Amino acid sequence: MLKPKLKLYLAAPRGFCAGVDRAIKMVELAIQKWGAPIYVRHEIVHNKFVVDQLRSKGAIFIEDLKDCPSDRPVIFSAHGVPKSVEKEAFDRKMIYIDATCPLVSKVHNEAQRHFSNDRQMVMIGHAGHPETIGTMGQLPAGEVLLVETVSDVQKIEPRDEKLLAFITQTTLSVDDTIEIITALKKRFPNIIGPHKEDICYATTNRQTAVKVMSTKTKTMLVIGAPNSSNSNRLVEVGLKAGCSYACLIQRATEIDWVALKDVSSIGLTAGASAPDELINEVIAALKDRYDITVELVETAIENIEFKVPKILREVS
After folding, report:
1. Radius of gyration over every alpha carbon of the chain, rounded to an integer in angstroms
2. Is the pTM of this model over 0.70?
């Protein structure tokens, strides 16, 4: 029986970013250096497949530092942690390694610099997301005002409208962030922003690829976890760019074949914490059902690499 033809547009770049790759290596090297178990506060990255793989190697994932014994090393996730968490680990004389993505640390440093200059911060981010919690936790309570939407800009009450600065979560929609920044500058003309936007290169690149693919196909599959901010934003970008169907899946078993019944083309991408194994798995599942022609949609070349901390480069 002949398979129906399908044009598969494959985004490039897609999948792992440098910060995610670094964080995963840090857990693996820590297990190699100190043996199992190694504790990790929060999921090291937002992907169940990756977390389960590391768990099988000896990582134990916890949400509160009190669940980690003082005599075992603990790693802080790539999303960053409040300063109070680092202080608790220090006070308990724990071995702790910070896997915070360097681009998130850059935002932390911005916030600290503005605080030192008596500026109150406005953070554009999602309430409850670990990165937002970690960034807001760099400064004393009340020093960071959170806005999620343009309408939120009208609701905040800073103590001095002339002494404000803004920062953003690194995994947001580039377009939505621009709208909120415009609203902030309109209401607070003296507000100061970062020298270079906080949205990370990987987020921007993956969203750009989705926009380009959306001019070629109206059906999009995004591989990523439900709690992955950058993956969810890719779905939103696809829909906003004109896709009639854009769906987030964790792996091939979640593909809705009924929804894809009559399509002749599909765009495929993956969030920054989705490994190649899951991308290849989805491609294989599509090949089982369709006669596929693949076209690479390359909008950027990524060659960024972040080094792991010295303590882990010296594996004994």
Report:
1. 21
2. yes
